[in-house]
Structure formats: structure tokens, C-alpha cells
Amino acid sequence: MAILPLSNVRVLDLSRVLAGPLAGQMLADLGADVIKVERPGTGDDSRVFGAPYLTGPDGHPTRENAFYLSANRNKKSVTVNIACAQGQDIIRRLAAKADVVLENYKVGDLKRYGLDYDAIRALNPGVIYCSVTGYGQSGPYAKKPGYDAVFQGQSGLMSVTGLPDHKPGGGPMKVGPSIADVITGLNVSNAILAALYSRDANGGTGQFIDVALLDCMVAALSHYAQIYLTSGEVPVRRGTQGNGGMPSTLFPCSDGAIMLTAGNDVQYGRLCDAVERPDLAAHPLFHTNILRVENRDALTAEFDAIFRRNTVAHWLERLEAFGIPSGPINTLDQVFADPQMRHRGMAVAAPHPLAPDLQVLRNPLHFSATPITRYDAPPMLGQHTDAVLADELGFDADTLARLRAEGVI
Predict the structure, then answer these.
(1) What is the pLDDT of residues 184-234, one digit of tens each?
(2) How far is CA 128 from the centre of its chain?
(3) How far is residue 185 CA from its own chain's centroid?
(4) Could you give the CA distance from residue 245 to residue 264 in angstroms, rounded to a whole number?
(5) Contact, 175 vs 161, CB < 8 A?
(6) What is the spatial distance between Cα 377 and Cα 374, in angstroms, rounded to a whole number?
(7) Whole-angstrom distance, CA of residue 409 vs CA of residue 94
(8) Element at 327 (helix H, strand E)
(9) DSSP helix/strand/coil, 207
(10) Which domains does the chain have, with CATH numbers?
(11) Among 345, 401, 353, which residue's Cα sits nearest to residue 371?
(12) Per the residue annotation, which of 99, 116, 181, 215 is the catalytic one?
């Protein structure tokens, strides 16, 4: 088996809920040894976010819920009470041997426990210490708490998501998944990889990384934000309509709906042929993409009437034959039954002690020389406490028993 890219990297993951854990999971997928620290008794906050839970062998729900399972595969779970002096000492000793420390406590919280960057750097000068917070380490909002939905609103994402005000159901809309957390997690893992490369390949040092969910979400607005920065124009909600090649939107059919984008003039001409309306290719309001963008509502109305006349299957077959980017509006059961997703293996087996048939999402990265093949189930609370503290810190059975009795682990 090939050695994974991060096989010699050790990560101490003090993060909770989603953004930080997703970053730790990405590093673990790439081969890093990730030790996840959780509170004794309760664990990561996400463990109590509610159903659905894994069903155990007895047919009853367990405490392992889907939210936690989504962000913690390939890790080891160690329970340590960082509010007590002995727990803090354990964390410092583990951090002294780590390449990366990842945390998402509120600004200043870990300093109270002697677990902040300066304290850890004194023990481990080469450490990459990444702090993930809602608003960053500085600024007027630095100490404010926040969650994904707050940042979806505050970043401007909700202002450009949803139907226009004048349409039924119009108004700002939250994206379904916790997209601020997901995007932040990807940024965090990217930043950590860059810092490791700087330290190990470019003669750099350890360093502190400050990542804020609000920053990440504003950056994720990309071309929407650039529209405003370039022109002063505030982008508006357009429902499912795109912002580049037109038409680009959801079109209802007689038995469902499809999504398509004609990204340039050539594709638009093919689209007109596919729906047997060549006259629309030469229409004075639509014959260039600039005109189609300016007249997007009239254009959409023309094609809306066309697509309602036949089924999803009919139109997708027709559009594919003419090379038009298009697809169905799938529910998740349809996604995982889709032949492309089955071929790509986007659901993989990760046998769990309580659910031998557990499946998790496959990492979407494909490496030719170092493929990601290990999918260990997300750990149960404290599953690796004894093994990690024995192997890493030399604790014997009596010490472990005493620390457990005292509530330290």
C-alpha cells in the first residue's frame, strides 16, 4: 500500500462541531495521525445534535449520530477534561509531540488553560497552531459567538440566495447544508498544508493560523463579491438563474424539473436546435450572450413554455444528444443510486462497532500514486483514550484508572 501524503504528520484536534472537525478529517484522509480530544462524558457538541442516530445490534438508537459521523472518520478519540490542571498537562504533553494543533474555541478561552499558541509554541517551536473562530482573532466582533446560519446571513450569501422579493416565496434563503462550516473546513485544511510545506520544504518555522468563518464566507462569494467591488452594483436574488452563460436555470417539465446552462453562443445555438426552435437563435433579443443576460427573464419565459411540454427523461436525452450541459434535480436517494456516483464510489464502507454496514462519504480526491483507501469509522467517545495515553505518554494501567476515577479522562 502506498504511503499517504501526510503519513508522518501528527495532528492534535481540539475542535468541535463541523468546520474544525471537517478540516481534521481531510488531514486524516490524507494520512495524518489525528487525535481528537473530547470532553469526558459528553464529547463533541455535535454528538448531541439529535437524530438520526446509528441503530445498534439490539435495534435501538445509539449515541452515534449522523452529524458527528460526517466529520470524524479516520481519527482517534481521546477524552480529556481540559478544565482541570491534570487534563491541561495531558494536552500540553500531546501538543509537544504534534505537528499541528487545531482548535475552535472562542478567542482567549484556551489562554486561560495555558493551551494557547504562545504556551504550546514554548514547548514545541515548530508547531502549526490553527485557530478557527467565527470572526477572527481581531476586530470589533472577535469575541462574539456564531454558527453557520449566522454567517450565511451576515456574509451576504442569503441576500443572493432564494427567489426575488416580487415572486411567491421570495426573500433571503439559507443554503441547506452548513456551507459556511464546509467552506471554512476546506480553507483550514488548505492553510495547514501550506504552513506544513513552508516549514518542512521551504525552511520556514512553526506559525499561528487565524481562520474566521465570516471571512471564508465573504471570500466564497467570489464573482458576486467582485461584481460589487468592480461596479458598486449590489447583486440580487435570481432564484435558480445563473450569472454567466444564459439560459441557466431550473426548467419545470411535465413530470419534474431539469437544470441546464448554455454557457456560450455555440451551446445556445445547439439548445435552440435541440428544442426545435432555431428562430430563437437569431432572435434580436437573444442572439448574443450579452443580450441574453440583459433579457434573461424574457429568455427564461420562452424556454420555460417549451420544457413544460415534455418529460424530464425526454429532455435530458435530447439535450445530451446536442451536447448541452444539463441534469436532473436529484434527491439524495437518487444521487447515491446514480450510475456515475456508483462508479465513482461516493459512498464507501466504514464498518463501525455498532453498525458493521455503516457507509460514509468518500473523499472526493483521486491520487494516482497515493490513493485514499483507508476509511476507519468515526470513533466512539473515548475509544482510543487508553491506547493513546499509554503509547504517547507512557501511562500505565494504574495511572489511567486513577485519572478516570478523578474525572480527568
Answers:
(1) 999 999 999 999 999 999 999 999 999 999 999 999 999 999 999 999 999
(2) 21
(3) 6
(4) 5
(5) yes
(6) 10
(7) 14
(8) strand 326-328
(9) strand
(10) 10-220+363-405 (3.40.50.10540), 248-328 (3.30.1540.10)
(11) 345
(12) 181
CA-CA distances (angstroms) from residue 185 to 179, 194, 269, 354? 10, 14, 41, 28
Residue type at position 37: V
Assign 1 a pLDDT band (cuts: 50, 70, 90): low
Contacts of 49 (CB under 8 A, 6+ apart): 65, 67, 68
Length of the chain: 409
For residues 324 and 262, what is the distance between their CA atoms, to the nearest angstrom? 6
Q: Where are the alpha helices (DSSP H) in 65-202?
A: 66-69, 85-95, 117-123, 148-154, 179-201
Residues 148-159 pLDDT 10s? 999 999 999 999
Q: What is the mean pLDDT of residues 372-377?
A: 96
Contact criterion met (CB below 8 Å) for 319 and 307:
no
C-alpha span between 214 and 147 (Å, rounded): 10
Asked if residue 243 lies in contact with residue 223, where contact means CB atoms within 8 angstroms, the answer is yes
Residue in this structure with the C-alpha cell 456560450, named with its chain if needed: 264
| The residue type at 86 | Q
Tell me if residue 181 is catalytic.
Answer: yes
Q: What are phi and psi of 214, to 5 degrees?
A: -65, -45
Orientation of helix 19-29 relative to helix 179-201, angle to 10°: 50
For 84, 319, 351, 352, the CA distances from 89, given in Å and listed in that order, are 9, 63, 34, 31
Closest among 207, 184, 73 to 130, alpha carbons compared = 207
Q: Could you tell me what percent of the chain has a pLDDT over 90?
A: 93
